[in-house]
Amino acid sequence: MNKKPKNYFDEKGEVVEDVFITETSQIQRHSTPGPTANRSNPNRIKKHYGSEFLPSENSPSNPSMDMGQEKEKQIIVALKKTPKDNTTVEGKINIISQIDGPREVLCCKYNEEFDYLAAGYSDGIIRVFQSGTGEQIFTLTDMDVKDNRAPVTCIQHRPVSKIYPITNCFTGTYANGCVKCWSYHFNQCLYTIKEKRQTFGITYHPRFPKFVTYGDDLKVYFYDEESKTQERVLMASEDPEKHDGHMSRVFAACFHPRNNYELITGGWDDVVQFWDLRQPYAIRHLSGVHVCGEGLDVNAKGTEVLTCGFQNTDYLQLWDYGSGKRISCLEPDIYNSKLYCGKYVTKDFIVTGGTDPNILRIVDLQTTTTAASINFLPGAVYAIDVGPVKKKDKEKEKETVRVKSDISSVPKIAFVSTKKLYQVDFY
């Protein structure tokens, strides 16, 4: 068995327990994994059989007489079933690739070197494409996935740093509670953590080999990846008068970029919680944000919080990290879209995605207006990932005064909508 490593965060001497994991070396289970929670059946996957093309029970007995009419009916039905593509592009943005998948795609993630783009589908399979050509290269699945079908809810990888080398791994979470780390070059699952809940996402620590997962049981699990142990469970206290933990499903988490101990989380209870891993419960909170996806981010300086809410008003807001006070509410230019996701892409721009209507939007923080957008997509934008940072032009580097935000500096962005995986670039 692996020995428990030094815990960077157990200054209070808190007792932690092992989690149920499976590895290629068949590590044994020593204790019951995590708390239990009632959950709905994650195996409900829609199947489209295309019954409109099957022979009807009342088909004519003389096929030669009505063959043309029957074929014409099938074509009409097919046209009615095919959704119209009313997608429009506004601003200095180009759709550089569009990959159609076999099932609805729910999440996406570039690898460490940005040459591959992984997408998680509702059939439980992670498909990895070459980002430059769109060619499918790897299919990440095993018997565990095939025997327990559940949608992939999130894909991440350990952040690149000088301390830890590139691992060429993706870690995915699944609606049946599995957390699986894949070595995509070898199509091999390195380890599996089985949580007794629906798991909606995973967020890595920016510097240490740690991560948190979150789901439908109101709790946030804090893991050490090297030992595969669960070090903390972040949850509310038993005092009903204190808002020091979540009271509903948790859909997002983000570590502070400069503080090793702090993170924020959000979910269906309309509250964003601020956690310090040295404290037993959440230390403060802000209210009025209904989070339904990866809709939280902290800017690079660690001074501001971006919230993207699935709500009719105040859906895109900036907050002061230290005080929790709202700085501004970024109003829509034309369309008011309920947001699933959003993040900072540079110090001057943020990107958001949502539905009703289905829009990907780039917002200029200097002018607080939409710099570019893709409108009326075929479905909701559930997830976004940011590509490699663009190299600065030497002439622009010499400029000492910044006059206007330059959208051409925004990196390539990947996002998902229905069965489509998109990549866009800016000019």
From TrEMBL:
InterPro entries membership: WD40/YVTN_repeat-like_dom_sf (IPR015943), WD40_repeat_CS (IPR019775), WD40_repeat_dom_sf (IPR036322), WD40_rpt (IPR001680)
Spans of repeat WD: 243-285
SUPFAM superfamilies given in the database record:
WD40 repeat-like
What protein name applies here? Uncharacterized protein
Which intervals carry biased composition (Polar residues)? 24-43
- For region Disordered, the annotated ranges are 24-67
The stretch of residues making up the signal peptide is none
Q: Which PROSITE patterns match?
A: WD_REPEATS_1, WD_REPEATS_2, WD_REPEATS_REGION
Keyword line:
Repeat, WD repeat
Q: Which Pfam family, just one, is annotated for this protein?
A: WD40
